[in-house]
Design a protein that fits this description.
The complex is a heterotrimer of chains A (123), B (512) and C (99).
Chain A lengths: L1 H31 L32 H14 L3 H11 L1 H23 L7
Chain B lengths: L8 H23 L2 H28 L7 E2 L4 E2 L2 H21 L21 H9 L6 H17 L3 H19 L6 H33 L4 H10 L4 H19 L7 H8 L2 H26 L4 H24 L4 H22 L1 H26 L2 E3 L2 E2 L9 H4 L1 H15 L5 H15 L3 H27 L8 E2 L4 H19 L2 H10 L5
Antiparallel strand pairs in B: 1-2, 3-4, 3-5
Helix pairs in contact in B: 1-2, 1-5, 2-3, 3-5, 3-11, 3-14, 3-19, 3-20, 5-6, 5-11, 6-7, 6-11, 7-8, 7-9, 7-10, 9-11, 10-11, 10-13, 11-13, 11-14, 12-13, 12-18, 13-14, 13-17, 13-18, 14-16, 14-17, 14-19, 14-20, 16-18, 17-18, 17-19
Chain C lengths: L3 H20 L3 H26 L3 H31 L13
Classes of the chains: A mainly alpha (123), B mainly alpha (512), C mainly alpha (99).
């Protein structure tokens, strides 16, 4: 048990070294830099490539994204059935592979429909 | 080695046909030219329903206790399931005819692009020219297939999935009305939010029952409940949550609030489909849950469900009196009818089940005919559903006013109509099953409910047609057929109900 | 720690969702409350699966997740439809249907 735990000590030491290096760099930076506080207007604004920042941090996504989001959600989540299937398909034989092919085929049908209805075209 | 569950393809053929046809319907939608789509989709869907019906009838001959449960215990194709599937197919066939009607209005009752902003140029153009949506056929087929699965589900998980498969297309169908689109979309939103809410209750119920019984198939639940080991609270709470989900679908009070809004807002063909088929499917599921899975808890759920049934018949009848819109009136009448059906469910036994099965078919056919007739009475803005607009219709169009009068009398349960036979069998079964107090409520409710029906009748025949009385459009072949089938069935089942009653009697047996 | 606490957690989450649907007014928030309820049910299923010592519950949670995803897509599509025809997602603005 001890040996097992001590193998973590290496990782702990490494993490410690990492913290010391980064913290040290910040500390040295702080010690060496000049300190001239100055509350000029706009100093604390968000930096936007030199332009004056435009008010408001909220931006609405364009509505055209939502179709992609829907399609993604559906196909991503339906893929969940592939996981239990992937565990057994080698043992279970051909029928299971055919069944999954039908399942994926039905999903593909949905994609085909979306494509024909031009849901995938950027407009 | 993983052992695959045996599949009895002959038994689940109707399901496979409908799901396959719905998928092919999506392909038709994608590849057949726009002009030919409606007729192609309509004929194809009707053919699919007929094919499924053929397999249901074929199966009915050789179903036994041994071959009923299939697909790894997920599906039971017993006689009750076959009866319900068959009646769902018949009802859906008739409603699909109304879906396909194109002569009343250019492009039919459905809108092609539902998201166009109301009042915009594009909106006007669409109202004037577009051919209308044909996605409704695959959606209806998906929904129908879900219903067929729902009434045959042998475990709660299959039931949950089927519940969603038949609900989700319905939410979309509700949003697709061509006229009064805002109303229709609002109905869809309400239906969706409340439906999703109810199905979440159902799922949590499934989880609790699973926790109690260690399985979700009805036989295991039945056995576990009979043994009675473990925390019985889990089981009862689970059943309560399941019941909320199911009672929402059958539109029983206090879970009925969506019904009037959705019935009014949805396109009328969809309303007809929902009123007939959703009700049949939901009751099919409810009786299976109660009498196959949870029959051991009978003395616990009967009083509660009895109170709900009494509340439902009263709420539906009293609120129907105050309505001024025909679709809402029929919606509240449908709530009250859910109550009568619940009385039949609580009656239990062979007689109770038989009466419920008979009632579902009789009511479904009548209600489809009634909504088909509502699609005919229209003015420049589409259907004129406000009650005052129907005043004097008898003078304008005696034939259709006569048919509607007959249908309303059937709803009211006047002898020589199917409504009378249905109510008689349900109440008879309830008296037989020791639920006389419910029958008293049922009779009082029927008397109250006769008033709004008769008011419509009086209005149609005794008022003079005014300026605003709309004309009755001449129906096309499809709506006429639906109307004719519904009306004749209402008459035939009222005069000679024996055949269907016998069939329902033979079917009133579940296999666990 | 007994797994029963997870059932309690699931029940609490479910209740939060159920109450949320009743008191909130924004369709998207309502919708998230329903999702919370479904996920509470998933948690209960997985926990019971552990307690019962069978894997069925986990598979059921898979099905519930997929159904929930389909529901999300349909629901958001309807909400988007309403938003595009009238530019609002508040349930109270959808008030044409009254009894």
């Amino acid at each position: 048990m001890d040996a097992y735990l001590s193998s973590y000590a290496t990782i702990g030491a490494l993490a410690l070294v990492g913290v010391v290096i980064i913290g040290g760099a910040f500390l040295v930076n702080r010690l060496l830099r000049p300190r001239r506080p100055n509350a000029a207007a706009g100093k604390r604004d968000t930096y936007e490539c030199g332009l004056d920042p435009v008010p408001g941090g909220w931006a609405q996504m364009h509505i055209r994204y939502y179709l992609y989001a829907y399609l993604y959600v559906l196909f991503a989540v339906e893929a969940i059935f592939l996981f239990p299937w992937a565990v057994v398909y080698l043992e279970a034989g051909r029928a299971v592979i055919v069944e999954m092919a039908i399942f994926v085929g039905v999903l593909a049908l949905g994609l085909l429909y979306a494509w024909r209805k031009r849901a995938l075209t950027w407009q | 080695m993983v052992k695959l569950p045996p599949m009895d393809y002959a038994a689940i053929m109707p399901l496979l046909i409908l799901f396959g046809a719905a998928c092919l319907g999506v392909l038709i939608e994608a590849f057949v030219p726009r002009r030919a789509r409606n007729i192609t989709q309509l004929l194809f869907s009707l053919a699919a329903v007929i094919a499924a019906m053929v397999f249901v009838v074929k199966r009915a001959g050789n179903v036994t206790a041994a071959n009923a449960i299939t697909a790894g215990g997920a599906i039971t194709i017993d006689k009750a399931a076959l009866f319900l599937q068959g009646s769902l197919l018949v009802l859906a066939f008739v409603s699909l005819l109304i879906f396909g009607e194109r002569t009343l209005e250019q492009g039919g009752a459905f809108v092609a692009q539902a998201a166009v902003t109301v009042g915009s140029e594009k909106d006007k153009e669409q109202a004037a020219k577009s051919l209308g949506s044909t996605e409704v056929y695959p959606l209806a087929l998906f929904s129908l297939a879900g219903m067929l699965l729902f009434v045959a589900a042998n475990d709660l998980l299959t039931m949950f999935v089927a519940l969603e498969v038949f609900s989700l297309p319905l939410y979309l169908l509700c949003a697709l009305a061509r006229r009064k689109r805002l109303l229709s979309q609002e109905a869809a939103l309400k239906y969706f939010l409340l439906g999703a809410y109810a199905s979440a209750f159902f799922l949590f119920g499934v989880a609790l029952v699973y926790g109690y019984a260690k399985a979700v198939d009805f036989a295991s639940i039945h056995t576990a409940a009979a043994v009675g080991a473990g925390n019985i609270t889990l089981l009862i709470t689970g059943l309560g949550l399941l019941a909320i989900g199911l009672l929402f679908k059958v539109a029983a009070a206090p879970f009925h609030v969506w019904t009037p809004d959705v019935y009014q807002g949805a396109p009328t063909p969809v309303t007809a489909f929902m009123a007939a088929c959703t009700k049949a499917a939901a009751f099919g599921g409810l009786i299976r849950v109660l009498y196959v899975g949870f029959d051991g808890l009978g003395w616990q759920f009967t009083p509660v469900l009895g109170a709900i049934a009494a509340l439902t018949v009263m709420v539906g009848a009293v609120l129907a009196v105050t309505q001024t819109d025909l679709k809402r009136l029929l919606a509240y009448s449908s709530v009250a009818n859910a109550g009568y059906l619940l009385i039949g469910v609580l009656a239990g036994g062979q007689l109770g089940l038989q009466s419920v099965l008979f009632y579902l078919v009789a009511y479904g056919l009548t209600v489809i005919a009634a909504f088909a007739l509502i699609t005919l009475v229209r003015d420049a803005d589409g259907e004129a559903t406000h009650l005052s607009r129907w005043a004097g219709l008898g003078a304008r169009s005696p034939l259709f006013a006569g048919i509607f009068t007959f249908l309303l009398l059937a709803f009211a349960g006047i002898p020589l109509t199917s409504g009378f036979m249905a109510k008689l069998s349900v109440f008879g079964a309830a008296v037989d099953g020791g639920q006389t107090w419910l029958v008293i409520f049922g009779v009082i409710s029927s008397i109250i409910l006769a008033f709004p029906y008769l008011r419509v009748v009086v209005m149609m025949w005794l008022s003079e047609p005014g300026e605003s009385t709309p004309s009755v459009s001449l129906p096309g072949v499809l709506t006429s057929t639906a109307l004719g089938v519904g009306t004749i069935a209402t008459l035939v089942l009222g005069v000679a109900p024996g055949l269907l009653l016998d069939l329902a009697d033979k079917a009133a047996a579940f296999i666990r | 720690m007994t797994p029963m606490w997870y059932i309690v957690l699931a029940a609490v989450l479910f209740s939060i969702g159920a109450v949320g649907v009743l008191v909130r007014r924004n369709a998207i928030v309502l919708f998230m409350c329903v999702e919370l309820m479904l996920n509470a049910a998933n948690l209960a299923l997985v926990t019971f699966s552990r307690i019962n010592g069978t894997l069925d519950g986990q598979i059921m949670a898979f099905f519930a997740m997929v159904v929930a995803a389909a529901e999300v897509v349909i629901g958001l599509a309807i909400i988007m439809l309403i938003f595009r025809t009238r530019r609002s997602a508040s349930v109270d603005d959808a008030n044409l249907l009254k009894y």
